[in-house]
Design brief:
This protein has 305 residues and is of the alpha/beta class. Helices cover 34% and strands 12% of the residues. The strands form three sheets. Strands 1-7-6-2-3 form a five-stranded parallel sheet.
């Protein structure tokens, strides 16, 4: 009896002291997922604009989530698309039935660059609570359904809610002060918006002034993806694109956009796919920066109008 209690105690202590789950490959393909659907410890998040879209068809056993309604991002001090505090993200993951030890696969529709950006933003959310085992499905649902022998579930199965305890997270974000320091020091800044917004010809409604951060290089979001799908270009192709844009190969940039969504995709590509682990994400982006008239912005072609 004493030996049995000793073994139970040893098992409990080992579980309590267990290290965080090992990091997973950031990008998985359809063939990899097809061999593992509905497996224990694997949770597929189906990122859709509505539950009706999810009910029409999804990867078997997938859990539905709406990026814009479930709380993956929030407005803070008038600035949209900010990353919530870890405790709020943990509450969301608990509602979705995600366990800290699950390998989470993020599946977006695969119909364009903003699908990819939403998937990457959810990836960042999971990283922000120390969740290491998370991947994006390359090509998204479009790639899954393109393979004739892949099953597709219909209908809706509500998640079994639980609790989620955040773990220690690696550094991800740069704040406004860090961006100011980057401008002063010459640390590369990468603007992931379209070229017309980068130049200062046009602006998004979330940004109050035309232009970009002083000295920033422009790498439009579309450069990361094949023909405006959710299929990622090979790392060598992306490295060549960054070189063309004048982003030094040996530097770790700060990436930004209008309001933190596109820059999540930039962070994912540089940090996760290219291994540039010093890359930081300015999630306030120009929606925050442009609100302070004392902060500098550069209009490359203008003034507009």
């Amino acid at each position: 009896m004493a030996r049995r209690w000793f073994l139970l105690l040893a098992t409990s202590v080992s579980a309590a002291l267990a290290p965080p789950a090992a990091a997973a490959t950031a990008l998985v393909d359809v063939a990899w997922l097809a061999e593992r659907t509905c497996s224990d410890g694997l949770l597929v998040l189906d990122v859709r604009r509505s539950r009706a879209d999810h009910e029409t068809g999804h990867v078997p056993c997938a859990t539905f989530t709406n990026f814009y309604e479930d709380g993956w991002r929030e407005t803070q001090a008038g600035v949209p698309m900010r990353l919530p505090e870890p405790v709020r993200t943990a509450e969301l993951l608990g509602r979705l039935g995600v366990s800290p030890d699950d390998h989470v696969i993020i599946v977006a529709p695969g119909s364009g660059r903003y699908d990819a950006a939403e998937a990457a933003a959810i990836f960042v959310s999971l990283r922000s609570v120390g969740h290491a085992a998370v991947s994006i499905l390359d090509g998204g649902l479009a790639a899954w359904t393109a393979r004739w022998d892949n099953d597709v579930d219909t209908g809706y199965q509500p998640p079994v809610a639980g609790s989620y305890t955040p773990r220690r997270a690696p550094p991800i974000l740069a704040d406004r002060a860090a961006v100011g320091a980057a401008i002063t020091s010459g640390r590369p800044l990468v603007d992931l918006r379209t070229s017309d917004q980068y130049l200062g010809l046009n602006r998004n409604e979330t940004v109050l002034r035309h232009g970009t951060l002083p000295g920033a290089r422009n790498v439009p979001l579309a450069w990361f993806l094949v023909d405006d799908t959710l299929v990622f270009h090979a790392p060598a192709t992306v490295r060549a694109a960054l070189d063309h844009a004048g982003v030094p190969a040996d530097a770790d940039p700060v990436v930004f956009c209008n309001a933190g969504l596109e820059s999540s995709l930039g962070w994912f590509v540089l940090h996760e796919l290219l291994g540039r682990t010093g890359t930081r994400l300015y999630d306030g982006s120009l929606a925050e920066w442009s609100r302070d008239p004392k902060l500098p912005m550069q209009v490359i072609v203008g003034p507009p109008g």
